[in-house]
Amino acid sequence: MNFEGFQLTGKNALVTGSYRGLGAAIAVALARAGANVGCHGRDSKYAPACEEIHRAGSKTFYHLADLADPKSYASLIEKTISEFGSIDILVNNAGTIRRSPAAEYPAEYWNELITVNLTAVFQLSQLAGRHMLDRGKGGKILNIASLLSFQGGILVPAYAAAKGGVAQLTKALANEWASKGINVNAIAPGYMATENTEALRNDPVRSRQILERIPAARWGEPSDIAGAAIFLCSSASDYIHGHVLAVDGGWLGR
């Protein structure tokens, strides 16, 4: 095995939802592996991850966009190509979550989550995929799925539906694009210490129940995703297509 295959020097990447949390950790990891990395978020301030990317010696930018608005998708891909000359790596990380009992789940929650967590993943992948196909040099698309791609969860019907869709979309795109040199894979993070899980971590009962089931006996940290992301975005994973990799502290094996 040539371990230089894990290097991303000369590659151009876009990581959605990279203002903080998992996305920021992935963006910085890709930069430290040599890639230029564009960051995205809904916060108007410059993404802190961009400073780390600069320190790693890579080019970067921050693009403000709300993925609940489908009109924003093309601008993200166009910005990346304009800044870097191409897009070789797309990481669909951006997502949101809304909790409510299914019987009372508001339609606006459902529509928002399906748009941000699933429709955006497809349309951004479609736009990046067209560019990669036209260039004929392949590429990497990495989707951030969830343990709820496999399980149903509690009080999160729209999130579970969207993340189940992300897993199946990953396989569908891989079936079409693998022969063209485009790898489409996903990471399913376990219970991570991020903003999305703040409510769970602050609930003593649910937090205890979750920790008792994790063989690693701790919540995951955004940095725990970094190695898997580098692997699936590098040439080291060239023969991996349509796979959903659980990074979950052993949760699914319990």
Task: Please outline the helices and strands.
Elements: E1 12-15, H1 21-32, E2 36-41, H2 48-55, E3 60-64, H3 73-84, E4 89-92, H4 107-135, E5 139-144, H5 157-177, E6 182-189, H6 198-201, H7 204-213, H8 226-233, E7 244-247
Structural write-up:
The mean pLDDT is 96. It contains eight helices and seven strands, in the order E-H-E-H-E-H-E-H-E-H-E-H-H-H-E. Helix 1 packs across helix 8 (226-233), helix 3 packs parallel to helix 4 (107-135) and helix 4 runs parallel beside helix 5. The two termini are 32 Å apart. It has 254 residues and is of the alpha/beta class. 44% of the residues are buried. It is globular. The longest helix is centred in the middle third of the chain and has 29 residues, at 107-135. The chain has helices at residues 21-32, 48-55, 73-84, 107-135, 157-177, 198-201, 204-213, 226-233, and strands at 12-15, 36-41, 60-64, 89-92, 139-144, 182-189, 244-247.
Helical residues, percent: 40-55%
Supply the CATH architecture: 3-Layer(aba) Sandwich
Strand content: 5-15%
Q: What structural class is derived from the secondary structure elements?
A: alpha/beta
Number of helices: 8
Q: Which stretches of 5+ consecutive residues score pLDDT under 50?
A: none
pLDDT averaged residue by residue: 96
Evaluate the radius of gyration: 17 Å
The separation of the N and C termini measures 32 Å
| Structural domains: how many | 1
Name given to the CATH homologous superfamily:
NAD(P)-binding Rossmann-like Domain
Strands side by side in the biggest sheet: 3-2-1-4-5-6-7
Number of strand elements: 7
Name the shape in a single word. Answer: globular
Q: Determine the CATH topology.
A: Rossmann fold
CATH class division: Alpha Beta
Give the SSE string. EHEHEHEHEHEHHHE
Q: Characterize the largest beta sheet: strand count, sense, and whether it forms a barrel.
A: 7 strands, parallel
